């Protein structure tokens, strides 16, 4: 399968006749993507992998619409957008990412519209969730899922929810704000997602002191490198001797770049695009941007090399590189990533305090 291009893979997804065929093809594609990771540019590989996930998810949403139509529920009564959050929103899913999604629909203009929407969209969300589950995507353990009322509502309710979180910026509300900052519309009326982010960006423009609250959550996860440059390894359990790549390398880089992008008003969701946007707008020095991209590339590659398992048909991983995988060359590469990540966190803290 490695002989085939990414375009061919996307065509195969589009031609799948049912969820069983799609699930089987996904398993075959995983093997091809894993082999390709060893000799591809990590950033190029990441783009291809996420185009693959996007194609699967779009196919699933279209099938869910068709399912409701066949069941007599009709077509969507109002424009809507299917949203991705987390690594999906950032176009940084691994081969085994879970479901982090939501659904927003246009504000009803009549009581009939409201009733139709409140009947239709929960059914659509349930159909999407179930089909994605069958395609191998487990639900988000944190409840960021389209069947959760928090992430399934009309545009006005999304706006009110954001303003409520901004108005009471405790730890949990700020966590939700940072989750929302990564949203991306993958299907439907993308302008609805743009309007959610308009609220976000306008609030920060009017009240930049909110950046201080965002900073606290942003710096919560520290890079896994010690004072003397040594790797901080897992001490106990089946991952003993390994390193937490997700929370010790990847997430600190993602969080730091996200806050820089929010502070600069950059309207993009992927970490790579955010770095490039900051450099092109001269909000970030080119040399620093190159360093951050290098660290991101290493983190994306190593995160996608962590061991995974299939549980109940779903792909899962603990996000930790095993002790056996930490060769001398790989450990050296990881240390470079972590040193840059540490510098990034210091830079973000200094930048936000200077802004305030």
Automatic annotation (TrEMBL):
GO terms for molecular function: [protein-PII] uridylyltransferase activity. Residues 48-170 form the Protein-PII uridylyltransferase N-terminal domain. It comes from the Bacteria. It holds the Pfam family DUF294_C. InterPro entries: DUF294_put_nucleoTrafse_sb-bd (IPR018821), GlnD_Uridyltrans_N (IPR005105). Residues 209-351 form the DUF294 domain. This is Signal transduction protein.
């Amino acid at each position: 399968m490695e002989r085939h291009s990414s375009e061919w893979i996307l065509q195969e997804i589009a031609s799948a006749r049912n969820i069983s065929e799609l699930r089987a093809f996904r398993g075959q594609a995983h093997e091809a993507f894993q082999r390709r990771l060893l000799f591809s540019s990590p950033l190029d590989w990441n783009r291809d992998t996420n185009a693959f996930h996007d194609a699967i998810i779009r196919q699933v949403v279209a099938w869910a619409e068709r399912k409701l139509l066949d069941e007599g529920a009709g077509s969507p009564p109002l424009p809507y957008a299917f949203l991705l959050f987390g690594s999906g929103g950032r176009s940084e899913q691994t081969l085994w990412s879970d479901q982090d999604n939501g659904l927003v629909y246009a504000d009803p203009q009549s009581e009939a519209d409201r009733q139709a929407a409140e009947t239709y969209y929960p059914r659509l969300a349930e159909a999407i969730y179930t089909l994605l589950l069958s395609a191998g995507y487990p639900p988000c353990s944190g409840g960021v899922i389209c069947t959760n009322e928090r992430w399934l509502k009309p545009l006005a309710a999304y706006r009110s929810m954001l303003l409520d979180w901004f108005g009471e910026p405790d730890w949990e509300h700020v966590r939700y704000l940072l989750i929302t900052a990564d949203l991306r519309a993958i299907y439907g009326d993308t302008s609805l997602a743009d309007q959610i982010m308009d609220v976000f960006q306008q609030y920060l423009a009017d009240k930049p002191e909110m950046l201080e609250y965002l900073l606290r959550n942003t710096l919560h996860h520290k890079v896994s490198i010690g004072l003397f440059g040594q790797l901080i390894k897992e001490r106990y359990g089946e991952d003993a001797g390994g390193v937490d790549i997700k929370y010790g390398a990847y997430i600190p880089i993602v969080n730091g770049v996200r806050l820089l992008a929010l502070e600069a008003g950059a309207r993009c969701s992927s970490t790579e695009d955010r770095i490039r946007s900051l450099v092109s707008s001269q909000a970030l020095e080119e040399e620093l941007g190159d360093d951050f991209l290098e660290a991101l590339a290493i983190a994306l590659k190593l995160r996608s090399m962590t061991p995974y398992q299939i549980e109940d048909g779903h792909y899962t991983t603990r996000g930790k590189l095993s002790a056996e995988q930490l060769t001398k060359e790989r450990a050296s590469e990881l240390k470079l990533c972590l040193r840059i990540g540490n510098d990034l966190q210091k830079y973000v803290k200094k930048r936000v305090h200077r802004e305030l």
